[in-house]
Specification:
Helix content is 36%, strand content 23%. The protein is α+β, with helices and mostly antiparallel strands. It folds into 2 domains: 2-166 and 334-376, Gcn5-related N-acetyltransferase (GNAT) (Aminopeptidase, 3-Layer(aba) Sandwich), CATH 3.40.630.30; 174-313, 3-Layer(aba) Sandwich (Aminopeptidase), CATH 3.40.630.30.
Length: 390
């Protein structure tokens, strides 16, 4: 194979890129990654530099990986502050590093794409990983990190690759015919609490519009952009997306967007942006200019569950963190990420850290499963294990 590093996703044709990953996941679509680049959402300002990795055979692209040079860990959701500090303590540079991820998106999806008609996936992965290691060494990066890959188990045979563990909370559709059908699967007290929260919102003078890129107006995107920025600024954090990005993806991938707009009479007061594939709904961003009790739960969780049921989606990933999701029907799903370090001065210490991290996540998940709100959990446990693969 020959390998090439692209400084922009625009250097490869959209159809070629999308045919390589042959996935409906919205966050690896050429249109999504291109919009991030074109509108400065991944840029020097935010410490994300595109370095997309493409493999060729006989001049034809056969594999690829979305890849970024990083100068911080913002927008990754796999936190490595301690590693950075350890490297500094012995006079080594931890940055720049390489990260394969969907920027600002802690959602499971493909990272290493192999053309389906080229070869069996296990055969082609290793030479690509070896080439990536060589590139990492040659360019002086401290290592590469593959985050939220839906095929993390493909990397574990490489003994040089380290595995980290974490947990998210996701909702699984158990063939529900409607929201009441979902509630019927819950324990009575949890069912009652959700009904009370939804009733409190229903008594407000509010309407909910569930839109996509076709039906959302430019005014909707202007309003949502205000909500999005307010959320980050209120938390003294950094908003990275912008109005031009939202307007572009509304045009280039309209069917992948689910925009929930909340209005009091004609005035938009809150909104949530979700994305969807053919099987999964992904909760991403939320904001509001008016504080209404339970409005966040209704807009970001219950409207999403309603949508997933109505559209026959199998799963709802609402994003990272948030143990409060458990009481609202979301269950723990164990996450993995893969890491290769060019130089590792703390090999024994990091191995111990990884083993303890895995043990703690395992113990925490077992504890959370004792408090999930469902009357029956066996099928849900199997569904969550099919995602985590460990």
């Amino acid at each position: 194979m020959d390998f090439k590093v692209l400084d922009s996703i625009l250097e490869i044709d959209e159809s070629v890129w999308n045919n390589l990953h042959h996935s409906k996941n919205p966050f690896v679509q050429h249109a999504f990654l291109a919009a991030l680049e074109k509108h400065g959402c991944v840029s020097e300002r935010f410490g994300w530099f595109p370095k997309h990795f493409v493999a060729f055979e006989a001049g034809q692209p056969v594999a690829a990986m979305p890849l970024y040079e990083k100068h911080n860990n913002y927008g990754e959701f796999v936190f490595d502050h301690a590693w950075h500090q350890a490297w500094q303590s012995v006079g080594l540079n931890y940055y720049p590093k390489l990260v394969s991820a969907a920027p600002y998106t802690p959602a499971v999806g493909p990272r290493l794409f192999v053309r389906s008609d080229f070869s069996d996936r296990p055969v082609t992965i290793q030479p690509i990983l070896e080439a990536l290691k060589d590139f990492t060494d040659e360019q002086g990066y401290s290592g590469f990190h593959i985050l939220f890959d839906d095929a993390q188990s493909d990397y574990v045979n490489d003994r040089e690759i380290l595995c980290r563990h974490d947990v998210q909370f996701q909702w699984f559709n158990q063939g529900y015919e409607g929201f009441e059908d979902f509630l019927a699967a819950l324990k009575p007290k949890k069912r009652k609490n959700i009904r009370q929260e939804r009733r409190a919102i229903a008594e407000q003078d509010l309407t909910f519009d569930v839109l996509n890129g076709h039906s959302a107006t430019e005014d909707d995107w202007h309003d949502f952009n205000v909500f999005y920025h307010k959320t980050f600024l209120d938390k003294f954090s950094t908003p990275t997306l912008n109005l031009d990005f939202f307007l572009e993806i509304a045009k280039t991938m309209p069917e992948s967007l689910v925009l929930v707009m909340v209005r009091r009479k004609a005035q938009a007061i809150a909104g949530a942006l979700m994305f969807r594939s053919d099987k999964v709904l992904y909760g991403r961003h939320w904001g509001a200019i008016e504080q209404v009790k339970h409005l966040h739960f209704e807009t970001c969780f219950y409207q999403g569950i309603d949508y997933a049921i109505a559209n026959g989606l199998e799963r709802f990933e609402p994003g990272a963190g948030g143990e409060h999701k458990v009481a609202r029907g979301f269950v723990p799903v164990k996450m993995q990420s893969s890491h290769w370090l060019s130089v590792n001065p703390f090999e024994q210490g990091i191995q111990g850290f990884l083993a303890e991290e895995k043990r703690m996540i395992q113990s925490y998940c077992q504890e959370v499963w004792q408090s999930v709100p469902y009357q029956e959990t066996e099928a849900l446990l199997k569904a969550s294990q099919s995602i985590s693969k460990w």
